[in-house]
Task: structure prediction
Amino acid sequence: MKIGVFDSGIGGLSVLEYALKALPNEQFIFYADQKHVPYGEKTKEQIMGYVDEIVSFMIKQDVKAIVVACNTATSVAINEIRKKYSIPIIGMEPAVKKAIDLYGDKRVFVTATPVTVKGDKMKYLIEKVDKQHLVDLIPLPKLVRFAEQGIFDSEEVTEYLKEVFQDFNAEEYSSLVLGCTHFNYFKNSFRKVLPETVHFVDGNEGTIHQLIRKLEENDALEMQEPMVTFYSSGEEIVEPEKLAKVNELLSRLERMRQIQ
Result:
């Protein structure tokens, strides 16, 4: 049986890239809902509908667990989806606690989509872990659009980030939480704007470790020939040029993962 991983778009490939390293003998389905990206600018009702449709699709593919590789979808839909389906469903959460535990001697940037920043889940998380009021929340909606358009190493990206961070004294900050999986593509651009003393933190490792725990609990870990089937909004990606593009994105994410 396969493991399902989905996102609003290509951001979730950063979670898949980590999962492929951690679970090299498993098979995966990756689903990018590119017809509806970006989720971070949609209504909660729209997002609920998209997520329910994707989970239903994946269950029909006979997956044994599903990773919601999207902080926005997790924030809006995870509780309702878990009530509806009995399959293990693992969500994403901005790694605020991890950042504070590791680097909490100074302030912390937490970046995410507008919906995640404004959501009750984020508010509860901050209240629970940010006892010294160190966190500053920053929505970065344009980064999702840049990623989906394949605009990565661009002066346009750098100028956008400079504008966003211009009113902060970055020397006061210890870390930047990448609270949207799309943001992992831009570590090099963040590094141009922020000093080396600002460390990058994301939730990919914790999410995949939770997936492994759930599979172990269900005795569902397998030794299979590794394979990934890619879908874009329900349509399997089979064209060689599109699959080559996916592999280019995975290679970029592997390079970005080396930037700390």
